[in-house]
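User: Hey, quick favor. My workstation is busy. Could you predict this chain's structure for me?
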Amino acid sequence: SGTGGFIDLAEAAGAEIVIPIAANAWPSGPVADDAFDYMAERILNAVEAGCDALFLDLHGAMVTDSREDGEGSLISQIRAIAPDLPIAAAL
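Assistant: No problem, here it is.
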């Protein structure tokens, strides 16, 4: 998996790994805004606490009740907090 590969590489480099949230769901329609906000808040709090880089393993076509691009919304929120943070994503 993308996450497994990232963890292997990070451990080999001696990096500290912080996983603020892990979630899984079957594709079945829009994500509830409350669920998106809950997950995004945990990620954003971790970014605000400070990190050298960020890896996200995302769906790639997430839609929420009020967002046509869930991943785009999340990345925009991250960029507002940490504009120069390196971000890698598996989709």
